[in-house]
Structure formats: C-alpha cells, structure tokens
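[retry 2/3] Precorrin-6A reductase: previous attempt timed out, resubmitting with same input.
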Amino acid sequence: MKENKKSVILFAGTTEGRQLAEYLQELDRPFVICVATGYGRDLLEDICRPDRTGCMEIRQGRLDVTEMEQMFDELRPELVIDATHPYAAEVTHNIKMACSKRKGLRLLRCLREPGAGDSRPGVIHMPDVEAAVTWLSSVKGNILVTTGSKELAAYTRIRDYGQRIYARILPSAEAVAQCRSLGFEGRHIIAMQGPFSEEMNLAQLREYGCAYLVTKDGGAAGGFPEKIKAAHKAGAAAVVIDRPGSGVGISLDEIKGQLKEWMDHERKGSIYG
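[retry 2/3] Precorrin-6A reductase: success.
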C-alpha cells in the first residue's frame, strides 16, 4: 500500500457498505473491501476497477478472528470499518476481537438507524429466530419469510413448512440451492433483490395468502417500514426479529464525517510535518 496515505479495510455487505466504498473512492483512499459471498462481490465489482486508484481489491469469504488478524498483518491498515448487516453479530464480534489485538488500529462500526412505525397493532417482536419459529409453530396460516436463506433451516421445524412458508431470498445460485436442499420448491422460493416497495410486499402477501410476514429490523435502507405498512394493509401480522444486544455503532453520515476529518488531519500533517 502507498506509504503516504492511510489505508482502510472495509467490511461491506450492506447498502451503507457500498456507499462508504464510493465515498472512499471520492477521497482517493487506498482500501480493500471484504465481503462474505460471491453475490456481495458482484454488487461491488464496478467500484474496484483498474481505472480507479482507491479500491485495491475485493476479498471474498467468511473470516474468523485468526484469519482477520493475518489479513491485518499483511495489509497493515490504520482504519477498519465494519459496515456489515445489523444482525451480523458473529462477524462484528470477530472484527472487534481482531482489531483489539492490533495496537493503534482504529475501528468504526457503521450501524443504520432502527426502522420507524413498528409500534402499530399487529407487530409481534421476537428476541431471535428460534423464538419466532416456536411461536409460528403454534399458529396457522401461510408465512412470508424475508430474513434470507442463512437461517432458513430453523423454519423447517414448522409443521407443513414446505406448504406454509414462502422464502424470499437473494437471487444467487447458492441461496436457491440452499432452499432446495431444505425442501423448498417452486413458488415457495422467491429469489429477488430488495429492498422492496410497500406495493411489492403487499402484492406478495396477497398472492401467497400469507397471514404472517417475518422480518428483521433492517431500517429504512433495508425496506423495513415498507414491510410493516404492507403487512398492516394485508391484515397480516409482522413478526419482527429484534436486533442483537450488541447493536452499537454510529451512522453513515457520522462515519463519512470522521473519514473526512481523518483525511484533513493527514493533509495538515504532510504540510507541517
């Protein structure tokens, strides 16, 4: 990496992650993007191009603490930004642990604001997926699950899940294959890229005759308010998986402000140092 510019490692995987990557390009920062999946990589390929000087590469794969430490030793960043999903508790914990073992390495956690409008009637809060599955097992009616494919296996404990559940997932071959391996087929696999409008959510709830919509609080960027409003209009209960207790961070705008301040401080240092 260039010696005259501070380098950054950006753990992406969200809308905010892409926006931060674009902002780092504007600031002409040398940085590396880390994503978990090939689909996440595809969504960022246009940012990391030979004709651009900021993004050095995109690294794909789920890393444990040791692997992150090895990457930090290799790249020697001065700043790490965690812009992973608000519910990615494990990877956020790993990033925090790996950063804590490297002296002088600064960590910023970008966390989107919780969604609004979830206090209306018909919204049922659950502490985790396991609790949601247990509760859904006790009621009747079709279910639109919008929490992705990663935790979909838990829902197979629901009786007649293959007929009751409609799984909305990312349109990746890996996600579709995982759904099929769990016994979901045909119309019960909805492979689409979000976030979705209120109208689209409403149309799907009505098309599949769903009495329940399962979601996480992805905030405005994740289309959470639109899901809640659509469920209300469809007469469906919104089952909300609450955010993990470790949901602590700062907003996208605050991250950008700190990056700008960091860059300005560097420039002054090069002038007066």
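[retry 2/3] Precorrin-6A reductase: The longest strand covers residues 210-216.
[retry 2/3] clearing retry counter.
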